[in-house]
Design brief:
Residues 25-215 form the Nitrile hydratase alpha/Thiocyanate hydrolase gamma domain. InterPro entries: CN_Hdrase_a/SCN_Hdrase_g_sf, CN_Hdrtase_a/SCN_Hdrlase_g, CN_Hdrtase_asu/SCN_Hdrlase_gsu, Thiocyan_Hydrolase_gsu. This is Thiocyanate hydrolase subunit gamma. GO terms for molecular function: hydrolase activity; transition metal ion binding. Helices cover 41% and strands 10% of the residues. The protein is mainly alpha-helical and 237 residues long. It folds into two domains: 27-54, no CATH class; 59-212, Alpha-Beta Complex (Nitrile Hydratase, Chain A). The mean pLDDT is 83.
Amino acid sequence: MTDHDHDHDHDHERTVAPMVDEITDFEVLEIALRELCIEKGIFTAEQHRRFTEFAEQIGPTPAARLVARAWLDPAFEKLALSEPMAASKEVGVDWMEPTGFGTPSDFTAFEILADTPDVHHVIVCALCSCYPRPILGNSPEWYRTPNYRRRLVRWPRQVLAEFGLYLPDEIAIRVQDSNQKHRFMVMPMRPAGTEGWTEDQLAEIITRDCLIGVALPKPGVTTNVITETRPAIHPVT
């Protein structure tokens, strides 16, 4: 064996093998369904790419603005709690056609859960990971984990404490379980120290985690707020 042959074999041994064993059943199903739809002409590979890039850029900014506006305008707050679909349109999100492609999974009953001094809401999907994507964007990874989904419904105070949220015993915690056709969003209470703030200032402190219910808005805390997002309308062609 020559030195060249030896080097070639050595390099071959160091080649990383494809991690096919790490592909989940859901990923296999998605690949098969996507390729079948492309083959049948339902959509093209290019259309799928544009839709994927568009969907990944939807964030929670419209929802934060909805809550901020409700804090400032009692009439809008009443609309948000009684007709959340209509209130969503006021901040640029149309649940009837959230992406321009009419994805059936996003046509749902939507409800906004308002916190009170006595009740704190938090959302979960114990069965899978249903989430109000048109107005909150894609769900965080931890929201989809069995660890969060199974434990929150059994030990909500312990799970919230792991997020750094410690609520007094006198405040009841209401866990709202989403399902295939129902989506929920939390409207937290306006924190002290924000008197005289504008809608823009208030929206900055309403983070994604606040809208899920695992955090409370605080002046100066803007973690997880996505400032540059696309509204849930037709993607640019």
